[in-house]
Amino acid sequence: RLEPESTGCRIMATDMFHQWEATLSQISSNDPSIKWVDAMCFLMGDSGACALAEAMKTNTFVTRINLRLNQIGADGVASIAENLLENKSLLELNLAANGLGDEGAFHVARLLEGNCSLKKVGSYGHFSLISEHQATDY
Predict the structure, then answer these.
(1) Alpha-carbon distance 137 to 102, whole Å?
(2) Which residues pair with 120 in a beta bridge?
(3) How far does CA 23 lie from the centroid of its chain?
(4) Could you give the CA distance from residue 125 to residue 22 in angstroms, rounded to a whole number?
(5) Tens digit of pLDDT for each residue in 35-55?
(6) Chain centroid to CA 115: how far?
């Protein structure tokens, strides 16, 4: 089930993919009512991550995305890195517990180096990388 919040969307596992296309459409159409997306445990995999990354490419309102526990691998994170390099609105991206591996870590680093607006990327358990290249707890 997709629960509209005052400034964002929470995608619930109970209706897994029912509202996913509508959410992507809102994000890609730059809907100002969507400021954050919580898709934790949605199990979207690489294909869902690629679709979300493409939708976010020109979005100027979403500032936070939680993709924790979504079975996203190196291909999904590569798409996220490629599509979000120019995005200036996204400040936080949680990719924790996705099994990104070394190749995924490379893409996360590339994203942080190329996107000065992105301040926090959560990955590798409860470890967080900050764009100023400092490490901190998440």
Answers:
(1) 20
(2) 92, 130
(3) 13
(4) 30
(5) 999 999 888 999 999 999 999
(6) 14
- CA distances to 30, 35, 67, 102, 119 from 134, in Å: 31, 26, 22, 19, 10
What are the structure tokens assigned to 78, written together?
């590569």
Report the distance separating Cα 17 and Cα 47, nearest Å: 13
Q: What is the DSSP string of 29-57?
A: TT-TT--EEE-TT---HHHHHHHHHHHHT
Q: Provide the β-strand partners of residue 51.
A: none
Rounded to an integer, what distance in angstroms lies between the CA atom of residue 74 and that of residue 99?
A: 8
**Helix, strand or coil for residue 133?**
coil
**What is the pTM for the complete model shown?**
0.81
Residue 102, token pair as written in the block: 């070394």
Cβ-contact 90, 77 below 8 angstroms: no
Encoded amino acid at 69, one letter? L
Beta bridge partners of 116: none
